[in-house]
Amino acid sequence: MIHDYLASFGFSGEPFSKELTDSELWLPPSKLSLRDEILDAAHSHQHVVLTGEPGAGKTCLVRSVRHDLEPQTFRLTYCHNVTISRRDFYRQLCSALGLPKIHLNAGDLFVAVSNCVQDSAREHLYSVFLLDEAHLLHQDTLDHLHILSNFDWDSKALLSLILVGLPELEERLRLRRNRSLYSRIHCRLSVTPLEPDDTAEYIRMRLHRVGCDRELFASDALAMIHEAAAGSLRSVDRIATGALRAASRKKRKLVERDVVMRVCQSEGGRS
């Protein structure tokens, strides 16, 4: 049982829970420059495309950006459901912006969103639209995004678009059909897999948060977790949790390589 696993190691909570506030998030040193580049782009009112494999840490990265964007300067609007028509996409933006839902067609909805961006800019509050899972955007919505960012004959930068998705997003944007949008994206970033030292530091940090300041994983166990997770934070969480539970059942106080190996084998090898 989970309570036995926590009590066995004296944890104050689940070390690899996803329930973290933005301020509690951890970014490996190798990813801090990505956060800074996104923040710089937002301050310059530029567009960003951020790609990476599942579990690579894209969400942690953009949540860190959210935490560091000054609310008195930026209005961040998050859209996580992009698998909808262009009309419904703009309806979603209107809802997130708190606009009245009286607009019926895609054209009216677009005008409402555009006017909101301009009104906010006049009050020195700049809009940032973050579109998650953007590789799933309908093509008709993707066709229109460069128009959404066009203000006063394309002479004013009032809006930053942050498109986050899997690597195929970059492939889609490179298509000739999407060249108008892609040419406007000056900040093109990719989240690479974790380095071995990143994985070890991440595990130590998560254990520290629940009151464990000793080395709980053997060095070769950490190396195996890194290899099995293939640089994915999500996979590190899963494998490390499974190893802790397995070690607890065996009454061990140190998680060693053989325990991690059995956990990896039980879930079918590398994830």
Kindly report the spatial arrangement of strands forming the biggest sheet. Answer: 2-3-4-1-5
What is the CATH class name of the largest domain? Alpha Beta
**SSE sequence, one letter per element:** HHEHEHHEHEHHEHHHH
Shape: elongated
Helix content: 40-55%
Q: Provide the gyration radius in Å.
A: 22 Å
Superfamily (CATH H level) name of the largest domain: P-loop containing nucleotide triphosphate hydrolases
Largest sheet composition: 5 strands, parallel
CATH fold group of the largest domain? Rossmann fold
Task: Find the count of extended strands (DSSP E, 2+ residues).
Answer: 5
Individual helix count: 12
- How would you state the average pLDDT, rounded? 89
Summed up, the domain count is: 2
Gap from first CA to last CA = 24 Å
Task: Please provide a written account of the structure.
By secondary structure, the protein is α/β, with parallel strands linked by helices. The chain has 2 domains: 29-191, Rossmann fold, CATH 3.40.50; 194-265, Orthogonal Bundle (Helicase, Ruva Protein, domain 3). The chain has helices at 2-9, 29-43, 58-68, 86-97, 106-122, 139-148, 168-173, 179-182, 196-209, 219-229, 233-249, 257-266, and strands at residues 48-52, 74-79, 126-131, 159-165, 187-191. It has a 5-stranded parallel beta sheet with strand order 2-3-4-1-5, sandwiched between helices. Strand 3, helix 6 and strand 4 form a beta-alpha-beta unit. The longest helix has 17 residues, at 106-122.
